[in-house]
Amino acid sequence: MNPVEFAAVHKSFKGKAVLRGVDLTVEPDKIVAMVGPNGSGKTTCLRIMLGLLRPDSGNVRILGMSPDVDALRIRQHCCYLPGETSLYQSMRGAEFLHFALSFYSHLQNDVMSQLMGTFQLPLQKKIRNYSAGMKQQLALMATLIPNVELYILDEPERALDATTRFFLRDVLRDLRSRGKTILLSSHHLLDVESLADELVFVLDGQSLSDERVAEAQDQLRKRVRIKVRPGTELPGGADEIHTDADGTLHVSPHGNLAEWVARIPCDALISAEIGTVHLEDLYRILTEEAKT
Amino acid sequence: MIARKTFQELLPTFVIYLLVMEIILLPAIVLWPDLKIIGDQLGPILGLTKILGKSVFSDVIQAVGDYHDYYALQAFFKGANVCGAAAAVLVGTGLIARERENHTLEFLITRPISSSRILFEKFTVATIGLTVPIFLVTWSGIPLSAWFVQEELHFVEVTLAAWHSSIFIVCMLALTTLCSVIFRSQSHTAAIAGVFIVSQVTLFFVQTARKFSLFQLSDIDVYAPILSGELGFTDLLTWMELWMFGTIILLYLISDRLLRRIAL
Question: Using CA atoms, how far apart are residues B87 and B65, in angstroms rounded to an integer?
């Protein structure tokens, strides 16, 4: 049984289609990331999984149960981190943690010690005095300490600094090694690129098929990323796709990629990558396709 | 845990509510001897108002004539009804709407607890917090009346009056809770519930429209017979309280159903 099965799910709000056919399968003991720009429908998918919203059509099974019928049982076996930090501002950190964990019968004490030791949150202070990053850390503790089968995390790395993000990735990998399944959403590809076992692109309310992703990968394999000294004239026979902020050019040569790069004078060439698939580029292609 | 958290959040409101009611009651008891003299002097006017027809004015003047009526006027009509309705709006609006406004409702309803249980725990705490002060304040009137003005109030009658007042306030709470589930922000909820209650109070003071006001269920005409022992528990229950119970249950069940389908 797969922990998450989402098939052809549609959802509209006041006549506006937000999900237009999302397919998603999350296998056990995996970290799966839903990636897509803001407003693409990721949070709506997560809310449907927890039974907070009802889909207009499609089939949803979470841990073998239907959220429409067994929402409470699903929530006993899965923990959710909401996208917007939703904490009781008037509570102290320790009070909130005690309150949030009181709903679960089994806790992972070693995870609690690990998170407390690393985050070093001032738990005796009122939450209203916490920074955005500290609030997110507290919300993560409330979500990751319960011992459940499935963790659903909406933008878990939001407001975290780089060190904490790296630590969080280690914690999530550790949970996976214990047989837990993790589904997370993010609109920052770089955040999840090194963490997830599988990526699911959600664009404009639709999950992209493997074929479409493969097509985009093929396009990238026919491109060259080069950085040249200022004033260098590039050889002909190539289309320039775009230029990154750091001056890296994305070029699509008409013929053999290596031969085209070889025509650039050595002293003008700073770096060149031929046919490499960067997820960031893949994401850009898919997003641009969705817009057109 | 939700009940405990709700209680901790609302405790200051409950304490202030209790103190305000006590502060309203205590000087009223102490002032009784002076008012009784004025009441005696206003005898002819009382007769005139009776001839002109029953009005709130005549109720007030009449209340000066008998301590039970006077106590009913002060403790319930002035204290529990006014303070209780205000406290019910204040407490009820926050039960769900504040959670939604602060984005904590999503956190709460994604825990392994049903929305019905959330509403039940919150509503129960609010009910206890709003009704216990009514009993405490009205019971406090028994020794205070004996000490300060040497008037006797009977425990059973006072308790029955407090019981009736409590049901009326829980009706207000149920109504406000429903608004709290329907409207997205606490200010909208408070505005709608507040306007409704103020309009009901206004209707109560308009002689011809008084029968349309909910406040006639909890006015001097109800409390004075209870405190004088003319109206017993069974009479009260069959006369109006069954209807009030029914209203509370209906409003609660609608709130519960709506909360299960709440859009965040």
Answer: 30
How far apart CA A158 and CA A137 sit, in angstroms, is: 10
| Contact criterion met (CB < 8 Å) for B111 and A50 | no
- Nearest Cβ partner of A103 from B102, B113, B263? B113
Per-residue pLDDT of chain A (292 residues; tens, 9 = 90+): 899 999 999 999 988 999 998 999 999 999 999 988 888 899 999 999 998 899 999 999 999 999 988 999 999 999 999 987 678 998 999 999 999 999 999 999 999 999 999 999 999 999 999 999 999 999 999 999 999 999 999 999 888 998 999 999 999 999 999 999 999 998 777 778 788 998 898 888 888 877 888 888 888 888 889 998 888 888 888 887 788 888 888 888 888 888 888 888 888 889 888 888 777 788 788 777 766 6
CB-nearest partner of B109 from A52, A88, A100: A52
Residues of B in Cβ contact (< 8 Å) with A99: 1, 5
CATH architecture for residues A4-207: 3-Layer(aba) Sandwich (3.40)
- CA–CA distance, B70 with B84 (Å, rounded to integer): 19
Cβ neighbours for B259, distance < 8 A, ≥ 6 positions apart: B96, B115, B116, B118, B119, B181
Cβ contacts from A onto B, under 8 A: 46
Q: B148, B214 in Cβ contact below 8 A?
A: no
When scoring B5, B13, B102, B111 by the number of chain A Cβ atoms within 10 A, the one with the most, hence best to mutate, is B111
Burial class (CB in 10 A: 0-12, 13-18, 19+), B152: exposed
CB contact under 8 A, B104 and A87: yes
Q: Does B103 touch chain A (CB under 8 A)?
A: yes
Cα–Cα dist B141/B155, whole Å: 10
Closest Cβ opposite residue B107 in set A72, A86, A102: A86
What SS3 state is found at A91?
Answer: coil
Domain boundaries, chain A: 4-207, 213-291
Contacts of B261 (CB under 8 A, 6+ apart): none
Kindly determine whether residue B102 and residue A50, on different chains, have CB atoms separated by under 8 Å: no
